[in-house]
Structures are given as structure tokens and as C-alpha cells.
Amino acid sequence: MTAVHDSPGSLDQDAEPTAVVTVSVNGAEVTGRVPVRMHAADFLRQRLGLTGTHVGCEQGVCGMCTVIVDGEAVKSCLMLACQLDGRAVRTVESLAEGDRLGPLQEAFAARGALQCGFCTPGLLMTATALAYQGGRPDREAVREEIAGVLCRCTGYEPIVTAIEEYFAGLPETGEEEENART
Amino acid sequence: MTVADLSRSEMDRPDLPARGVLGASAPRKEDHRLLRGDGAFTDDVQPARAAQMAVARCPYPHARIVSIDTSRAERLPGVLHILTGADIRETTGPLTVLRPVPGAPELPYRALADGVATHEGQPVVSVVATSRHIAEDALDLLDIEYEPLPHVVDTMEALGPGAPVLQPAVLDSNLLAAQTDRRGDPEARLREADVVVGARFRINRVTALPMEPRAVVAQWRPGARMLTVHASTQVPHLVRKQLAETLGLDESEIRTVAGDVGGGFGLKLGVFPEDVLACVHAMALRLPVKWVEDRGEHFRGSTHARESVHDYTIGADAEGRIVAMMDRYVTDLGGWNSPFGSAQLSSVVFNGPYKVHDGLVERRVALTNKTPIGAYRGYGQPEVNFAYERLMDMLARELGADPVELRARNMVTQAELPWENPAGAVYDSGDYERCLRMAAEAVGWSRHRDAPRTLREDGRIVGIGFSSFVERTGYASSRFLARRGSRFGAHESVTLRANRSGGVDAYTGVSSMGQSSETAFAQVISHVTGIAYDAVRVHGGDTAASPLNTGAFASRTMIAASGALKAAGEEFAAKTRRIAAYALGCAPEEVRIEGREARADGRTVPLAEVFTRALTGQGIPPEEEPGLECTAHFEPMDAAYSFGTAAAVVSVDPVTGEFDVERFVLAHDGGTLVNPAVVEGQIRGALAQGFGAALGEELRYDPGTGQLVNGSMMDYFVPTAADVPPVELLHTEVPSPVTPFGVRGVGEAGTIPPAAAVANAVCDALSAWGVELFTLPITPESIWRAMRAATGQEAP
Ligand code: FES
Ligand code: FES
């Protein structure tokens, strides 16, 4: 057995280039120093403790790491933490109000849209970002929109139903604009 | 229905739950935390000062490790510890197998390759550093010299003459073992048969691909002699046993914890090399050591499944009655024997739902220079179903018979059950024909049967195909397992403990991996005791906080656990009633437990008070012992057989081979349903995996280089939301006579029929050309090639 470098002090000080980022995460501003090669998912999970964002492939394929950056769903494993500088991130941890689940989360529970739950945060954030676009996608459109997030447990049907019901419960885009104006 | 409504007030028929909390789609206990991103998956365990592990893997399918020089890697700042095969040989024993191949010699292997590596991706060196980045940088600085050895990746070639032998110290060929089950004289029956159909069926190599990769966090406190291992596993108590054996520790020195598990499907059964490595590093460094598998490693260093070749023959008389069934098959084991090894259930249910006296099934296990094969949902049953159900359709064509009627004529009838098949499996109960008829009717079979298979307006031809199956769920007792050499039991266990808040804490070794065990267990407890569903909390997966159990696999959890939950629940309720009666001044028989209180004759006492009395010993009957905690174990004596029939409606373009599954109906019986919504979820999920394996997934090896050519999610296509065909589910509910509450396992059924049903539909559509499919996956290209072959044209 080869024991080397018995200086555990170095545990906290990765000897590699770092950068300072300032980012709004779920409405709170965070400033921190990160290694330049750390990706955004690791930053959220390891530096901020927001472990609801999952990592399944680190290749941009599985969608487990999907979060919302400046209003758009992105795969946070394909982004560097430094690239978050000056931007607003929303993660699954923001969806409940206190202990009350949000309407999309309620729809998932009611429809049996999760089993192991590993894919769930990615799907919730994808559907949340979809709602920002307004409109009311039909089942086929929902299927296409969430095809970037894999689920190995459910067969997707209940997920599509839950998202469809969530959209049905949203105010019409027109109404929303109406409300915004008044 | 609200949660409160679910608490069952009647205890009239605890055996056959028709209503109440058992049999209701209770809201899942697991959902709230998972929906909030508050699950506790293994990578979410982040101990302070944890060091990170990375693993160097053999890039060749078969190679001798000539030398390893770690000096450059050691000098990289941040690198803490490096292990090679020589270190591992000194400090650990071989990894142990849970389900050895019956009759086979042991093939010991260690956490790091010891001299020779037998598959691409086998761990060779492990490095621990202050960050994963640095650990991976260090891998690039390792100087490992390999001498590539001749390799073989094709299953049948591995058994042929001249193939390089993988384990020359133990074997003189790559045939690890052969095992035959037989009854009667099937060879003679085949010679006498009026019609014989047979073919070679090739089943593709696939992988379970749970969305959460494997992961482990090991922590060692030398003074306490305590190794705490968080791992993403279906079997925490078995992992503890295997780690103790491999590391030379007492079991008491190890605690294994499986928090939330992001999908298992059979892949996360038992100890993998990286689990051992993380422990050895942690013990040497006295630091927490974490390893999280990346997807590239997952495709090469976890396990694959299903790859097999079946030579199957069926003989029948002129009326279409089956007289013999014979399956000689080879399963590919890969480079070594993973804890569960290759599938064994192809043998157990080789004849499916069909009644046959004379039968033979021969299983041969072949070693190849590929990633080891492990368990995967279905464990041999989808594979053999593809073979016998394709042959049933070929037999129907040969006889000019209706494939539905041919199936019906040969199915074991309700009156004949229980019935023992030629392999010794005892089918318990059911109405197989009913599911067949339901599926046939749902897709309008009788109309379709007589209609010509002509082009639709869109240039497609529509075909309908069926697949009928039985599914072995659970294990037939520890005696059965002992005969097969398995090193685990058949029982489940649970501890119920009262708490002063008036609720019940249930402790189980079963970890939560999406199968909804917390929900289902709480339902059974609530049903048996009368205590409110939402007053029951299930704690799973921690070996330090649960009675010893077996684990979550083989669709066995609910069958075995139901018995333990029932026994513990009854004892718990009886004592609760005795103490409540003392408080209320009445007889225990008068007390009913309802929700969060006990009542008798219009008076009530809160369970919080009853349980506080019990836990303090203050205010309980003088002859009563203090405390309220009940542990029960249960071992089922028999397996229960689920069954069903699927029907696929497929449209095929006869020019290009393009096809779509336009409808897919599954009529299925899962016995008594503890939670119908959960059961439906299990079936839909398993079907999606079945479609994936039938229609697209295939791990391909290049025969020349022995490399896995599509080992990433970019090249290995699992179904997305846009790919899963529309599914319609029909249920019958025949309670099993051999299990508590009449439950059958439901976790795996969906994986079984998709391949055969879709292939049969394609062949039905193209029957004018005489197209028959023998190979999985079914793709436009494979159909196009089969068309060319059937019409005598060359295919490039
Ligand atoms: S982890 Fe980001 S897409 Fe898979
Ligand atoms: S619920 Fe397990 S991957 Fe989707």
C-alpha cells in the first residue's frame, strides 16, 4: 500500500485556479470562490448544499441536473459554475412554499409521476420553465418537451398526465397578462 | 379520499382485504421529500473532509498487467492514497458471490485486477485525492503496462474450439457450468410429433441503467472499530455480510446504510469492487472516502444483462396440443461472476403458461471478455418468453390454426392448478385463459384474424401479436434456495416500535428504490392494527436500525414482508388493546383501535397515552411487561406465479421496415393489490424497460478490438417520453393461495411480454412474405433484413 501526501490540510485547498462568482439562487444572492473547472451542478450540490439537483451522466443527456437559469431550463452539468456569474438560478428547492407543495408537485404526487424520485427534480424544473413560455401544450407537445429528461421507473405516462393537469390549472396566458396590466 | 379516511376501522376480515387502507391507492410516503429535492441519495451524503476516489480501468478486453508505476501520480498535489492489485491481494479476500452458479467452481476475483484483467473496464488501480478532479488527473499520471491477451466476445464462439480460455487455472474451457431440468422423454415425444417448430433465438445484451449511478461513502473510526458504509444498494444487510467477508471484519464492525436509492432494477445487488476499495482507502486514511460512479464507468464497470442464445423446439400433435417443449440455452456471464451472476429463471418458467408433461431445459453458462452479467428485472423470463411465444405463432402458422385458440388450448387451466412444470416449478393459481381472452378482445382480434393483411392508406400493414406468460415472484423458501446454492435467505422481517407521540415506527432492512415499500408497509401495518396510515413511519435500509432481512429483489419483498408485517402488527395491536383496556377499565376484546385512539363502548383513550403507559411501564396491567415493540420474521413456503397476456398492434412499412406500436394492451393478474396505483406504476415502468430492450437497447462489442462500442448515454438509447408506445392495462385479481393476503409480486411482469408481442405482430403483418424474427432488438433494419431474406434477396 502506498501512502502519500499525509497533509490532510490540503483537503480544503484544491491547488487549482479559482474564480469568484456572484449568483442569485432561488432569490438569494450568493458570492463564492469556485474552481474554474467545477460545473454548475456540482456548485449547487457541493458548495450550496442544494442536493435536489441530481447528476446522472455529466454529458447533457439524462436531464437529471436540469435547473432554470434566467428563465430557461438548462442542464447544469454542461455549464461551469463561473458561467453562472451575474445570473439567476432556480432549483427544485424553490417549488414548495414552506411545507406546502406547489401545484406542479401536487400533480406529480396525485398522478403517481414518481417512483425512485431521482429524475423528479429535473422533470419539475423542465415543466416549470415550460410554463414560463405561456400556452397550453397538448400531450404530444409535453412528451417532446420533456424528452430531454429520462426516467427509468415510470414509463412517463403519469408524468405527462401530471404536467398536463398542471397546465390545465394555470391561468390562461391572456388572463395572466390581463392581471399583470391591472 | 384523504389519508385520515384510510385508517381502517373494521377488523372483520384481515385476511381478504376488500376495502380500507389495504387495496387503496394511499398517497405515497416517499413523495413529499422526493418532490422537494430532499431525498437522501448516497451522493447527497457529504461528510466534512471527505476525500474522493477515482478508478483506473483496464482498456483491453483481456490483458496481463505487466507493471504499474504510481510514482508520477503520487507526486501530484492533493493525491492522498493509491491502491494496486498487489495491495488488495494483501489486505482483502476475494469478493464473495451471493448466488453462485449451481455446480460451478468458484471464480475468485478481487476488487482490483490481480495479474490479469478479463474485461474492459475492470478496476486496476484506485486513487484517492482531495477532489474528484485531482483524483482523475492522477489517473492520467499512472504508468500501467499491459500485455493484451487473445480475447473472445461472442457467446457461442467462447464455447467453441480454439477460444481463449478466461480462467485457465480453474477451467479448461469457457463453459462454467451446465444444468439440465427434465421430465419424461421429450426427445421421443418430438420424434413422434405431427408438427415440430424450432429455431435459434438471440437475446441482446442490455443494461438496467438506473438514473442514479452506483455510489459509496465509507467512514472508519479505528478506535471504535466501526466502518460506516453508505451505499446505493437494494440489499444493505447482504452488503454488510459481503464486506465483512471480503475485508476480514466482524459483521458487528460494519454498518451499511442505503438511503434513497435512485432505481435498482436488480443491478444494485451485492458488493461491487469499488465498495471494497472505498472501504480499504477509508481505513488506511482515516478519512471519509467517497466514490460516485460516472456514466462511462457505469456502462463498463457495473453489470449488463440478458444476453443469451436459446435453441428452442416445440412439438405438437395435429390438433395443436403441445407434446414436448425443449430449450437448450447459453447465458453469457461476461468476465467474472458478479454477486448474482446470469439469469436463472429462463429455466424455471421455460414452458410459460403451457401445459406439457415432457420437457427439457438446459442452461449453459459461458464466460466471455465482456462486462459481467448481473440481475436485471425479469431475470431470464423476458428472454425465454421471446423464444417460446415466437414459436407458438410459428406453430399456429404451421398448423393453420388461430394463435389465440392454440394458446388457449394449451394453457394450464384453473382446474388443473396447482400444477408442477417439467422444471419442478409449482404454479399456484390463476385463470390464464381469461387474461388471454381479455387481451384478444381488447384489440379486436376476431375481426383482424379474418381480414386480409393489406396495405393501409399510409402504405403500412397492420399486424397483431400476442405474448402470454407466467412470472415467478418471490422465492420458494430457504430450502429451495439452499438447493440452488444461494447464500441468502427467503425471509423478511420488521420491527414495530410504539412512540410517545401515539405513532408507530417500523424498521426494515428494505431500502427505498422506487418500489414504494414505505407506503405499502405502512398500509399493511395500518390495515392489521387499525392505527392511522399517517401515524406509521417506515425507516428502511439501515443495518444498525433494522432486524436482519434479505432485501428488495425478485419481486419478493411484498410477499415475504406481508407475513412479517401481519405477525408483528397482530402482536402489537393485541398488546395495545390490553393496555388500553386497562386504562378504560374494560376487557381487551372490547377495545378497537381506530386511527389515533383506542375505543371501547363509546369511551376513548388516545394512542399517545396508551403508548406512553407502555413505554414508561406506568399504568399498565401488573402482569404486562413494559415496552411496546414487536419483531417478526416471515418466510414464504412457496413462490407465487403472476400471469398475463399482452397484445400489440403494430403497423409496418413493408418497404423500409419502419414500424410503430400503435396499441399495447396488457391483461395481468398480480393477485391481491396492496396499492393499485403503485402496482400500475410498477407495470408501466417495467413495460417501458421491456420496450427499451425489445426495440432499441443493445450493448455492442467490436469483435476485433473487444471494445464496447456504445458505452455512453449518447449511444445507448433508453426510451424517452416521446418513445413509449401507448399502453392499456387490464387487471384480474386472483388472490394467491400461498401468500399472506393473496399478494403476488408485481415488479417485473412488464419486462416479460413486449418483445414477443411486438415481434409476433410484425410477423403477423408480414405473414404473406413468411417473415419470422429471431433476434432482439427488433429494429426497422432487422425487419428489412428479414424481408430480404424471406424474399430471397441479398442484403448488404
Ligand atoms: S447530468 Fe446533466 S444531463 Fe445528465
Ligand atoms: S422515478 Fe426513478 S428515474 Fe424517474
UniProtKB/TrEMBL annotation, chain A:
This entry's Enzyme Commission designation comes to: 1.2.7.4
UniProt xrefs under InterPro entries: 2Fe-2S-bd (IPR002888), 2Fe-2S-bd_dom_sf (IPR036884), 2Fe-2S_ferredoxin-like_sf (IPR036010), 2Fe-2S_ferredoxin-type (IPR001041), 2Fe2S_fd_BS (IPR006058), Beta-grasp_dom_sf (IPR012675), Diverse_Oxidoreductases (IPR051452)
Gene3D superfamilies registered for this protein in UniProt:
3.10.20.30, [2Fe-2S]-binding domain (1.10.150.120)
- Membrane-crossing ranges are none
Superkingdom as given in the UniProt entry = Bacteria
Q: Which residues form the 2Fe-2S ferredoxin-type domain?
A: 19-95
Q: What is this protein called?
A: Carbon-monoxide dehydrogenase small subunit
Record organism: Thermocatellispora tengchongensis
Q: Which GO terms describe its molecular function?
A: 2 iron, 2 sulfur cluster binding; anaerobic carbon-monoxide dehydrogenase activity; metal ion binding
UniProt keyword annotations, A-Z: 2Fe-2S, Iron, Iron-sulfur, Metal-binding, Oxidoreductase
Is Zinc-finger included in the keywords of this UniProt record?
Answer: no
This protein's pathway:
Alkaloid degradation; nicotine degradation
Pfam annotation, one family: Fer2_2
UniProtKB/TrEMBL annotation, chain B:
- Keyword Cell membrane attributed: no
Question: Which InterPro entries does the record match to this protein?
Answer: Ald_Oxase/Xan_DH_a/b, Ald_Oxase/Xan_DH_a/b_sf, Ald_Oxase/xanthine_DH-like, AldOxase/xan_DH_MoCoBD1, AldOxase/xan_DH_MoCoBD2, AldOxase/xan_DH_Mopterin-bd_sf
Which one of the record's GO molecular function terms can you name? anaerobic carbon-monoxide dehydrogenase activity
Source organism, top-level taxon: Bacteria
Residues of the region (Disordered) are 1-31
Q: Where is the Aldehyde oxidase/xanthine dehydrogenase a/b hammerhead domain?
A: 36-150
What EC number(s) has UniProt assigned to this enzyme?
1.2.7.4
Query: Is Oxidoreductase there in the keyword field?
Result: yes
> What is the enzyme's main class?
oxidoreductase
Keywords, alphabetical: Molybdenum, Oxidoreductase
Q: List compositional bias (Basic and acidic residues) regions by residue number.
A: 7-16
How is this protein named in the record?
Carbon-monoxide dehydrogenase large subunit
